[in-house]
Design goal:
Length: 428
């Protein structure tokens, strides 16, 4: 018997609960038998102290600002890998051989087109539809084009994994083209993954469009940095939905909807809107630092703070370095980058942010680069979704592959009325 934790209950009973230790020495008290043994449950709104699963995919040490994909530091992956190789690593658990990688990339390259009837879905959206609404709708609708698939569950998952990785950039680019009233650009299979996305986003039938290879590489890096982040809100949503046994398209559509929120993936859009607000207000950074500290103000410093990181987000450090490189390369200066740097400097000197360990997170600088690339601000969270897709797929696979995983169905403590009477409508 390994370590145990003793729980003493008000009624006098005490029980021993098993303690489990992860490979990075994280410790948890296993309460799987708590209710059957004691009638008690635990409660933890926001799940800040509750582990939902064991996972072999990503490790985060929030105090040290550490992020590893399958045991490899994010800094190493960002420097040496590329997005599709990282996607393979996350989904299948190891770096692919050259032939495995070639086949994976080739399969994705040859599934980038959407069914022509799927293209007609776009006719139903208003021009100003938010692209996250389009993305989640079209992804969920993809399930109608791939029903009753032949093959084992593993083969079906593998095929649909490839389809989603291949088609999400096309779906995203077509959402943008719809919003600007330009013709949809079909994928070009002679281009790399991110090059193809930028081509579908910005090329026009009327002229030859050259993708800047350095921009394609920067986008590849951004996708790597966003690829997974253990049990964040959207990934936990994907696992929750997967637990009901539904198809992977429904799981990913749910993950997209969870990511949309401004407290999660929607923060990159909210950061740019906040920086623009400060710019229009004369760049008065200190005013907004003070506003963010006010208890009664609902203004928050978007792109700052994190449920897990109580140190610098390692992804933010890398993105910040690339901001300067990209803007220098494009020979553009962006006043919003200057404001962002001033905001970071002021916040990191302010006791409120220091005491609460609020540091810039992955969303704080990423929008500066997306803006420099010409990505519209309302599509910033779409970019996050494109990057996060491999993580969602990896966790959905891990959930399905693991023995013993069952329907996720949390308990609650009821605090509503008791023995309430039914009052007839003429007496109310
Ligand atoms: C992502 O989980 C993941 O891994 C997410 C992600 C991923 O890769 O999947 O990393 C991506 O979602 C990054 C986070 C993007 N969101 C934002 O940048 C929005 C701004 N940040 C916050 O809203 C907030 O920091 C959260 C939501 C991210 C985390 O908040 P928590 O953990 O729920 O903590 P909290 O809201 O309870 O805040 C603790 C204190 C509070 O003050 P007190 O009540 O203790 O007095 O810190 C304050 C908060 O008011 N606070 C902030 C703040 N963030 C927290 N005050 C001002 N500005 C902020 N940004």
């Amino acid at each position: 018997m390994g370590d145990t934790a003793e729980l003493k209950l008000p009624e006098g009973q005490s029980i021993q609960l098993p303690v489990i230790t992860g490979t990075e020495k994280e410790r948890a008290i296993d309460i799987a038998k708590l209710r059957t043994q004691t009638g008690y449950i635990t409660i933890d709104p926001g799940f800040g102290n509750t582990g939902s699963c064991n996972s072999k995919i990503t490790f985060i040490d929030g105090d040290k600002g550490i992020l590893h994909y399958r045991g490899i530091p994010i800094e190493t992956i960002a420097e040496k890998s590329n997005f599709l190789e990282t996607a393979y690593l996350l989904i299948y658990g190891e770096l692919p051989s050259a032939s495995e990688l070639h086949r994976f990339v080739n399969d994705i390259t040859h599934h980038t087109m959407l069914h022509e009837e799927a293209k007609r879905l776009y006719d139903g959206f208003p021009k100003d539809a938010h692209p996250m609404a389009v993305l989640s709708s079209v992804v969920a609708a993809l399930s109608t084009f791939y029903q009753d698939e032949e093959g084992s569950p593993e083969e079906v998952f593998q095929n649909n994994c490839i389809r989603l990785l291949a088609k999400l950039p096309t779906i995203a680019a077509w959402a943008y083209k719809k919003s600007v009233g330009q013709p949809f650009i079909y994928p070009d299979n002679n281009r790399s993954y991110t090059e193809n996305f930028l081509y579908m986003m910005f090329s026009l039938p009327a002229e030859i469009y050259q993708v800047d290879p350095e921009m394609a590489r920067v986008l590849d890096l951004l996708f790597i940095l966003h690829a997974d982040h253990e049990q964040n809100c959207s990934t936990s949503t994907v696992r929750m939905v997967r637990s009901s046994g539904t198809n992977i398209f429904a799981c990913i559509a749910a993950g997209i909807c969870a990511l949309w929120g401004p407290l999660h993936g929607g923060a990159n859009q909210a950061v740019l809107e906040m920086l623009e607000l400060i710019r229009q207000d004369g760049g008065n950074v200190q005013k907004y630092i003070e506003l963010a500290k006010k208890k009664d103000s609902d203004f928050r410093l978007m792109g700052f703070g994190h449920r897990v990181y109580k140190n610098f987000d390692p992804r933010c450090k890398i993105i910040k370095q690339w901001c300067d490189k990209v803007l220098n390369k494009m020979q553009v200066s962006d006043p919003l980058l200057d404001i962002a740097k001033q905001l970071e400097e002021a916040a990191l000197k302010d006791a409120y942010f220091v005491d609460k360990k609020l540091y810039p997170n992955v969303d704080f600088y990423s929008g500066i680069i997306y803006k420099a690339m010409g990505i519209p601000v309302e599509a910033f969270t779409v970019m996050f979704a494109l990057g996060r897709l491999p993580g969602w797929l990896a966790h959905a696979k891990e959930f399905s592959d693991e023995e013993g995983n069952k329907l996720n169905r949390p308990r609650q403590i009821y605090t509503g009325p008791v023995n309430a009477p039914y009052v007839p409508v003429d007496k109310r």
